[in-house]
Write a structure and sequence with these properties.
Elements: H1 3-14, H2 18-27, H3 34-41, H4 54-69, H5 85-95, H6 100-109, H7 116-122, H8 136-157
Helix pairs in contact: 1-8, 2-4, 4-5, 6-8
């Protein structure tokens, strides 16, 4: 999955306007202009489309954690230069304060079944004998389930 799609899906799931997205980036001491954000949201075919780099998505996810959980004491985590699906999934899990069963329930919303043991392998340290890379299919289904869960809540409140 590319970073632009991940950012778009998170934005859609929580129905965030441009101002809120810029504010989330600011939580990680990053300044993003409205035009840059707009270019990240464009389709790849559009000539103004800009690729969202791993570092920028990591900044957003760190800001998303602060947005959802509050700023922690002491030094803030550094944004990763290189992201993979495991890191993205872990950061979303932290931001939304999810336990393993919550993640599995969100995956079930998009008809994707997985055992707790398979899921825990995604959160292991790279190099651990039970570490398993998170494939695009898993992250895509998690983002779809997240959209179903959190977008539905917004719709019900309105």
């Amino acid at each position: 999955m590319n970073n632009n799609d991940t950012l778009k899906r998170i934005r859609y799931a929580f129905d965030y306007p441009d101002d809120k997205m810029i504010e989330i980036f600011a939580h990680s001491e990053s300044e993003v202009s409205r035009s840059k954000l707009s270019n990240w949201m464009k389709k790849e075919e559009d000539e103004e489309f800009e690729r969202l780099w791993d570092y920028d998505l990591a900044l957003f996810l760190n800001g998303f954690i602060v947005e959802k959980r509050g700023r922690k004491e002491g030094p803030q985590p550094e944004a990763e230069e290189v992201l993979n699906n495991n890191i993205v999934l872990r950061k979303l899990k932290i931001a939304l304060n999810l336990q393993a069963n919550d993640v599995l329930d969100i995956l079930l919303l998009s008809d994707f079944r997985m055992s707790k043991h398979e899921l825990s392998a995604f959160f292991r340290k790279f190099g651990h004998q039970h570490y398993r890379p998170c494939k695009d299919q898993v992250l895509r289904n998690f983002l779809n389930g997240m959209q179903l869960k959190y977008r539905q809540k917004k719709t019900l409140k309105k």
